[in-house]
Write the structure tokens for this entry.
Amino acid sequence: MDILQYWAGFYNDPWFWTFPMATLAISMTAFLALAIPWTIIAWLDPVSLRKYKIQQKPFEMKKFLLPSIGRIVINNIILASLLVLVWPLLKLTGVHDGALPAWYIIIAQLLFFVLLDDFLYYLVHRKMHENKWLMKHIHSVHHRIHNTCAISGNYMHWVEYTITASLTLVGPILLGAHIYVVWLWVIIRQIEGADGHIGYDIPWNPAHLLPIYEGPVYHDFHHAKFKGNYAGFLPYLDKYLGKTHIPAYLNYVKARRQGLNPDEIERLATEAKQTAKRLKRQQALNQN
């Protein structure tokens, strides 16, 4: 009985509700605040935005909307339960609610969180693709959706969801960050998580205001082509950690810089494939 009372005492601590529980609530609120409007847009699929669709085909709304919502609910219940279990360890970290650091230190910490999280995410994500067991039993859940909308960002196996959430806390724990900085960081991370799945490459997308974020195209190609583009924020990691860029993504970026919109890029790519097939058939006929 004394042991149970001792254990329960951890959760009577207001810091338990301020640190892990409030952080989880803020994280999920930030994700839904961005995901819901973009998901509604994908559902309506307005004609005026179709030229900006990265994949010129219907979103998989009817099949995956309700399952995505279900995954969000279940994954967050599981994650909240795990946070309860590990709270005695989290309480020992240096995350605090004392004096805020100077603004430039906050910016430096946030930049460090982005760099570290993206590096760790690249390694873990790539491992999930290269390890057959992880791919089959865990990461394949997220890849059931090939043409994503925003709500798909958190459609994943609970193990992957827990790992991704844990990676987000590594930086703040290492630096002993202020709780307000932690909250700001998880908001930024969830903005990227939702925006990376919206399915539209719109020039005036507000998420482009994030200084080092390149938009949803990078991750959309990962869902469409399956292998490559393993990072989150920073595509440069694919270049320097194994040349894992998706070639079609690089061609797309080049075409966008030339002023083409996604619809035009798709048409040109389709025409190029058809031309290549015709040439191949012609060569085969000439050889015969």
Summary: The chain has a mean pLDDT of 89.
